[in-house]
Amino acid sequence: MILDKPLSEEFLPWPSTSPPYRISDDTSKLERESRLVAPIMVRMVHAILETFREGDQGVRWYVMGFDDSVFFVENWVNVLAKYDHTKYYYIGDYSESVLSNLFFSFDQGFGGGGIALSYPLAAAMVKDLKGCIRRYPFVRSADTIIQFCVDEFGVPLTVEKGIHQQVHQRSMLKRPLETFRPWARNAKPPKFMFNTRWPCETPSVFFFESGGKTSGNQIVTNYVRSASPACLPALPVEGD
Predict the structure, then answer these.
(1) Cα–Cα–Cα angle for 88, 140, 113, nearest 5°?
(2) pTM reported for the whole predicted model
(3) DSSP the chain
(4) What is the rounded CA–CA span in Å between residue 66 and residue 235?
(5) pLDDT value of position 211
(6) Which of 14, 170, 226, 236 has the fewest CB atoms below 10 angstroms from its CB?
(7) PANTHER family given for it (predicted)?
(8) Are 226 and 206 within 8 A, CB to CB?
């Protein structure tokens, strides 16, 4: 865990049961040199270098997200297992909002949903990551800077559906099939990368029902699907 500044007295001593932490590098000089229109993005991109520098053994992937991202680790493990971690891979997904993709890029993985860099790609990037940051002072998004740095190695985005950038619940009384809200207010159609009015493309809604532990000290959660579109095959309404 990388923090912006040292912990205050109220958080010390740091519990041994909590993840180890590091204090982020002082990137103020790089921020001045790069002259980015959004200087805060320097620290976010620079975190790739700081994490790689830890030198952890046996690393295959680096997964990045935002402070409000929610990761299901088992799902990430299953997804990444499909790919050869010894090759260059940049894995993520577009935003569900057309406007977000138009404003930033249709070729980047969005950090709100999370992105994954294979170890060899991250190793290549960190050799000149500071130089890459300096080359794109006009970019306002850390996600886009990362995409541009990856582009320099000729690596395209590998799209994995299910890595959602933004999911906002709407009133189902008004539009029962439209469960997403556009990124910007007063956005004009087309708003989304999928058809929210067609049941086959509308995401199923699951509700958490219960959770517990198994004898093997594993966590098991149960969910109930609220409804199944008629065009989809029948599935159990409950699952682990």
Answers:
(1) 50
(2) 0.69
(3) -EESSPPPGGG-SPPTTSPP-EEPP--HHHHHHHT-SSTHHHHHHHHHHHHHTT--TT--EEEE--TT----HHHHHHHHTTS-TTS--EEE---SBHHHHHHS-SSS--TTT-EEEEHHHHHHHHTTHHHHHHH-TT---HHHHHHHHHHTTTPPEEE-TT--S------TTT-TT-----SSTTPPSP-BSS-TTSGGGSPP-EEEEEEEE-TTS-EEEEEEES---TTSPP--SEE-
(4) 33
(5) 85
(6) 236
(7) FRINGE-RELATED
(8) yes
The total of other beta-carbon atoms located within 10 Å of residue 43's CB is 19
Which structure tokens are listed for 146?
């990362």
What are the tens digits of pLDDT across the range 55-78?
889 999 999 988 778 888 899 999
User: CA–CA separation, 157 vs 151, rounded Å?
Assistant: 9
CA dist 182 and 99 (Å) reads 8
Gap between the terminal Cα atoms of the chain: 29
Positive or negative CA dihedral for 46, 147, 1, 5?
A: positive
Residue with tokens 């582009």: 151
**The total number of residues written for the chain in this structure:** 240
pLDDT digits (tens, 9 = 90+) for 132-177: 999 999 998 999 999 999 999 999 999 998 787 664 444 443 444 4
Structure token digits, residue 197? 């009015």
